């Protein structure tokens, strides 16, 4: 019996990216959004939140998520940079895990060094990070998606 149904594959005959994986990748870009928020928002509360939650070092964990996002978008056989995108995609699973672990380490150091208070927002971020690690490590679908890349059409 096949592992996945016909609907689980896209037009290139590769597994579709699960919605939860897309949402997880967007979640991992949160500090990038928080970095941009004060620049684009006219709402004082948004600027205050961004100021409380952001430091430049927290942009580091977003780099793997940006690479995986680019690979998600370019995961087609006609991609101009198919070799690079394919290589990023092959290690995408580990890129996301490394980004999450880096974020946990940075936040933990901030808390231990009393640079940040352990508040509700940080607790929520840490909880989601740990759930994301479990999802990335336990989901066979995620592992299969990262192992699947379209072959270049002739």
Compact overview of the structure:
With 154 residues, this protein is mostly helical. It has eight helices and no strands. It has helices at 19-27, 30-40, 44-53, 62-73, 82-90, 92-112, 120-138, 140-147.
Computed Rg: 18 Å
Q: What would you call the structural class?
A: mainly alpha
Write down the overall mean pLDDT.
89
Give the end-to-end Cα distance, rounded to a whole number of Å. Answer: 31 Å
Give the proportion of residues in helices: 55-70%
Order of helices and strands: HHHHHHHH
What share of the residues does DSSP label as strand, in percent?
under 5%
The largest pleated sheet is described as: none
The helix count comes to 8
Poorly predicted regions: none
In terms of quaternary structure, what is this? single chain
Inertia-based shape: elongated
The tally of beta strands, per DSSP, is 0
How is this fold's topology laid out?
Elements lengths: L18 H9 L2 H11 L3 H10 L8 H12 L8 H9 L1 H21 L7 H19 L1 H8 L7
Helix pairs in contact: 2-3, 4-5, 4-6, 6-7
Can you describe this structure?
This protein has about 150 residues and is mainly α. Helix content is about 65%, strand content about 0%. The model has no long low-confidence stretch (mean pLDDT about 90).
Keywords:
154 residues, mainly alpha, elongated
């Amino acid at each position: 019996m096949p592992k996945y149904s016909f609907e689980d594959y896209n037009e290139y005959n590769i597994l579709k990216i699960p919605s939860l994986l897309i949402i997880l990748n967007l979640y991992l870009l949160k500090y990038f959004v928080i970095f941009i928020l004060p620049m684009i928002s006219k709402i004082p509360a948004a600027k205050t939140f961004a100021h409380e939650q952001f430091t430049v070092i927290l942009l580091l964990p977003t780099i793997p998520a940006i690479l995986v996002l680019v690979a998600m978008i370019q995961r087609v056989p006609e991609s101009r940079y198919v070799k690079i995108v394919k290589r990023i995609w092959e290690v995408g699973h580990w890129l996301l895990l490394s980004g999450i672990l880096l974020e946990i380490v940075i936040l933990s150091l901030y808390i231990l060094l009393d640079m940040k208070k352990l508040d509700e927002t940080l607790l929520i971020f840490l909880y989601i990070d740990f759930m994301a690690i479990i999802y990335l490590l336990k989901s066979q679908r995620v592992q299969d998606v990262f192992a699947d890349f379209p072959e270049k059409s002739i």
